[in-house]
Amino acid sequence: MAAYRLHTGDEFSTVFAFRRVVRGRVFSLHYRPNALPSARIGFVVAKKLARQAVQRNLIKRIAREAFRLRRAQLPCCDLVLRLSASPKTASRAEMRAEVEALFDRLPQG
């Protein structure tokens, strides 16, 4: 849903400028508290790390679904999920598990 997404470059920039991040093996989750009633998310999946559009879309689809299911339990933050390493060896289940683990490591409150 559009209300739960980051859209503009400025929104992404403010999250990156806050300089808080939780790192995993394949992903980094940047976060910044917001004054909204719910969390919002954006994605950065570089062509350098995932060459094929099919692979980039799969990564975003997996992450969007994990966010949709966990949104109610997440703190009110703007989130940017960034691909930080090539996911060649990671399966879909491993990527999903890592995204959920990063959500669990977010500071509450």
From TrEMBL:
Catalysis: reaction(s): Endonucleolytic cleavage of RNA, removing 5'-extranucleotides from tRNA precursor
Sorted alphabetically, which keywords does the UniProt record give? Endonuclease, Hydrolase, Nuclease, RNA-binding, tRNA processing
PROSITE patterns in the record, alphabetically? RIBONUCLEASE_P (PS00648)
Gene3D superfamilies hit by this protein: 3.30.230.10
Q: What domain of life is recorded for the organism?
A: Bacteria
**GO MF annotations, alphabetized:** ribonuclease P activity
User: Could you say which EC number(s) this protein's record lists?
Assistant: 3.1.26.5
Q: What does this protein do?
A: RNaseP catalyzes the removal of the 5'-leader sequence from pre-tRNA to produce the mature 5'-terminus. It can also cleave other RNA substrates such as 4.5S RNA. The protein component plays an auxiliary but essential role in vivo by binding to the 5'-leader sequence and broadening the substrate specificity of the ribozyme.
Quote the subunit structure annotation.
Consists of a catalytic RNA component (M1 or rnpB) and a protein subunit.
Family membership, please give it. Belongs to the RnpA family.
What's this protein's name? Ribonuclease P protein component
Q: Which organism is it from?
A: Niveibacterium microcysteis
